Amino acid sequence: MPLFHEIGFVLNGSPIRLSVPVTMTVLEMLRGPLNLTGTKYGCGEGECGACTVLVDGLSLNACILLAVECDGREITSIEGLAADPAAAGLRRAFVEAGAVQCGFCTPGMVVQGKYLLDTRTGTDRAAIARGLEGNLCRCTGYRKVVDAIERAMGSTEGAGGD
Amino acid sequence: MHNSDGSNTAVTVRAYHVPQSVSTATALLAQGEAAVIAGGTDLVPQQRTGSGTWQPVLVSIRRIKALRGVREQAGQLWLGPLTTVSELLCDPLIARYAPVLARAADCFASSQIRNAATLGGNICNASPAGDLLVPLMLLDAEVELSCSRDGVISMRCLPIEEFLVGPGSTQRQPAELLTGIRLPLVDAARIFVFEKFGTRPALDIATVSVGLLAVAAGERLQQVRVALGAVAPVVLRARAAEAVLEGRRLDNEAITAAVAAALEEINPIDDVRASGWYRSELVCNLLTRVLRNAVVS
Hints:
The structure holds two protein chains of two kinds. Chain A has helices at residues 26-31, 78-82, 88-97, 106-119, 125-131, 142-156; strands at residues 4-11, 14-21, 52-55, 58-61, 74-76. The longest helix of chain A is centred in the C-terminal third of the chain and has 15 residues, at 142-156. A five-stranded mixed beta sheet of chain A has the order 2-1-5-3-4. Chain A has six helices and five strands, in the order E-E-H-E-E-E-H-H-H-H-H. The A-B interface holds A 1-3, 5, 21-25, 28, 32, 44-47, 49, 52, 58-61, 64-66, 68-69, 71, 112, 115, 131-135 and B 1-2, 4-8, 12-16, 18, 37, 40-41, 44-45, 47-49, 54, 58, 60, 62, 86, 109-113, 115-116, 201-203.
């Protein structure tokens, strides 16, 4: 019987209290008891980014983050971005750029894209590609993902880019 | 590999603590059988892949404010062990006094890992390929280790070179907590290089890494430091190579002699990333390139 620990956090804008096994990851918590299956299990080792979530605004790999370590924090998953008006431009850009092939990496790409939009570390293609280095697409459809994020950055700036 | 409920069958975690102070944390560690968790980017995957097991007690140190921050203190640069790799990348004091550390942070894993992984974690994980260990060796970093005895906290300070013992092995005693990293405050212009070789730029563990720190005086280098990663049980200072280079005109002859000296100092192994022979070739080529570029710049 694993040790359980009660935690409280804000998930996609709503406060939640939950008792979880101390060694359960955020990914297991989201996909299991919380039944939010948008966040994907890819490698389970923090290598592929399919499980990317935002915690207090930072993009993290949910597969190697213990749920108990999120006590008192704010988690945003892809389901949160699906309902977030501030992410509308990003969602539309992914659709318009056709930045989806099989779709398995897409939730992680969108969440990381939101992180790049929010942190504004760089808006050129090289900086966007660099920002996506922790997200693998096994269909190798990277170019359109970069297109989408570049487009979203342009639209939120009210300009079409360079 | 791992169970669906996230538990590890080998060891059951029977207690989880989130202390808010160093004294509480060290008191918990003093009771034994405890693992410290900070960013968790090494600890959690190590359980998943079976290369590590949980300890019965898990001590999360993320709420300890005294372990955060970067500041000038007593003539040194003090870095909190909870400083994340992302924070190292954009800290103005590190940019000023230890840019080689920021450079290595820029080569570290991926955006998501950099947001979680901590400086203290990279040090205590003691990987022979640890990206931040190369610059810390170049910078003569010291680590503060604190422990609690009868309610009194005592601290000792060790050079990083002494602290690192072998792969995954350090001088940290189970009751000790890494509570700070100290760097000398050197404001002088220094040449710094960190080069990491891997099969892709991101998310790769270094096959070999090379670091150089020196003061340029015309065509000569002074106060030369060379550190090499993933070529020995610990990240090492190539002191024989440094001695060859010190104050000498950096011509082809000097570079060849320095590389030859470095190759005598390393002891690379064969593993999944490369053979020992290949690692030696990499050290030869990377160090040659780094030194040639040092003259040009």
